[in-house]
Structures are given as C-alpha cells and as structure tokens.
Amino acid sequence: MIYRLLDIFFVVFHSSLVLFNLFGWIWKKTRIYNLITLGVTGASWLLIGLLVGALGYCPLTDWHFSVLEKLGKTDLPGSYMKYLGDRITGLDIDASLVDRLTLYLFLAALIISLILNIKAWISTKKS
C-alpha cells in the first residue's frame, strides 16, 4: 500500500516539476523559481551525473524506480521521461527520441527563462 502511494506521489510530483521546468517562465512571479529549478535540474543531470557515472541522472527518478521495483516492475527504462511517455500512451517510445526531445525542450525553457530573468533584472536596475 505504501509503495503504491509513493508511486502516485512521484508521478504527480515529478511530472509537476517537469511541467514547471518547461512552463514556469510564463508567469512573472514564478520566473526566478523556474530558473532555480532549471538550474538544479541541469546541475543534477551534469554534476551529480558525472559523480554517479550517468549523465542525465535525476535522484527523483532513482527513488521512484526503487519504489516501482518494490511493486514488482521490471525492465524500467533509463529515463523518467521515457517511463512517463510509455506509461501515459501505452506505447514503447524510442528512448533516443525521448532523450533528445527532453534535452531540446529543457534547453529551450532554460534559454527563455534566462532571457526573461535577465530582462527583469536589467529593468529593475534601471528603475
């Protein structure tokens, strides 16, 4: 029972974080928080990834996959986005396509967030 609840928690929390990373720059009040979560995500993917030997490492994925293993799930993919895409669609989406799309969307969100946060900072300095 607890692992089923943890599975639901991770799906909701992790998916919400992904959506916030992608779209949190839209609202002025959340832009700085969006930039922070994008920075933490990027640092996890790169820095922690280098430490554990897996670029793209995410501790949330690691924890969630541990829960799924306790629930008897096997053959889990290498990324949360592939897992989520497969879980939602019922398909077996190409992992390299998912990884590329994830990276491109992350970089697009990061660039937009950086530009908007820099513009806000500059306008605050001028005031």
Order of helices and strands: HHHHH
Please give the alpha-carbon distance between the first and last residues: 55 Å
**What's the tally of helices?**
5
Shape descriptor reads: elongated
Helix/strand class: mainly alpha
Low-confidence stretches: none
Taken as a percent bin, the fraction of beta residues is under 5%
Q: What's a quick, concise take on this entry?
A:
Helix content is 77%, strand content 0%.
What does this structure look like?
The protein is mainly α and 127 residues long. It has one domain (2-126). Helix content is 77%, strand content 0%. α1 crosses α2, α1 runs antiparallel to α3 (59-70) and α2 (31-52) packs across α5.
Task: List the main descriptive attributes of the protein structure presented here.
5 helices; 127 residues; 77% helix; mainly alpha; elongated
Topology summary:
Elements: H1 2-23, H2 31-52, H3 59-70, H4 80-89, H5 95-126
